[in-house]
Amino acid sequence: MIGLGVMLELPLIIIDVQRGGPSTGLPTKTEQADLLQVMFGRNGESPVAVIATSTPSDCFEMAMEAARIATTYRVPTFLLSDGYIANGTEPWRIPDVATLPDLSVEFAKVQENFAPYERNPETLARPWAIPGTKGIEHRIGGLEKADKTGEISYEPANHDFMVRTRAAKVEGIKVPDIIVDDPSGDATVLFLGWGSTFGPISAAVQALRDNGEKIAQAHTKYLNPFPSNLGALLEKYPKVILPEMNLGQLAMLLRARFLKDIISYNAVRGMPFSTAELVEAAMGVLHD
Questions:
Q1: pTM of the full predicted structure?
Q2: Chain-centre distance of CA 69, in angstroms?
Q3: Can you tell me the distance from the alpha carbon of 262 to that of 255, in angstroms, rounded to the nearest whole number?
Q4: What is the DSSP string of 59-109?
Q5: Which of 68, 164, 175, 246 has the lowest CB atom count within 10 Å?
Q6: What is the pLDDT of residues 157-208, one digit of tens each?
Q7: 180-181 and 189-193: which strand pairing?
Q8: Domain range summary for the chain, segments of one domain joined by +
């Protein structure tokens, strides 16, 4: 179904609350092991947007982000959570509806020579026509479409063009820069995280700083595409520690993309990291 959504270039939001696996595994426990599945778990070249929430209260904001990305770029979008977040609670102020982002969509209007795969030059998104609108009906389905016309096409050159265009659309999704917390300004070690590791990493970083250690922290909520400044951030710090409740999935993606020797710290026990174990892991890197 996700591959079909990629081919149709229509918005779709999939919320994945990760738990211990594979199969039923530890169904009531937490894990971060679905990242590679959502990135690549489809046939063919089928890029999708992938974002992740970091705390229970952050779920609302990131759900809004998933809707923005999916509707603006006409692309399936995964929102990753996990069992630790799903079973967690924290105070959250209900926002004023008037302050929320405008997620309204402008649907295609009836027009002559409607081209269902004519693209917005900025987002590369195709028009979104309400199904059945008289005068702008077009073909849908899982077969490759011709550029602009949307007719079924088996032409090799068209397929190559459409695959590259869909990839460029996802790569061009505008996401915020990743923010680094580095009070001293001269730390040489960066603690990087994603998802629910935000809490344990933050507690560990505070404990290390209270002990006089210089260490930076950053947390990414955007996994595909990555924030545009992530490469420069990784280059700035000689050592990057990345705790994950998997066997190093984001670390593998970062090594491949940025050729950075990420220091993985991994556990798949169905339990979140403790502050003490992350402090111990960081001390081994800080004083290596």
A1: 0.96
A2: 10
A3: 7
A4: HHHHHHHHHHHHHHHT-EEEEEEEHHHHT-----PPPPGGGS------PPP
A5: 164
A6: 999 999 999 999 999 999 999 999 999 999 999 999 999 999 999 999 999 9
A7: unpaired
A8: 180-286
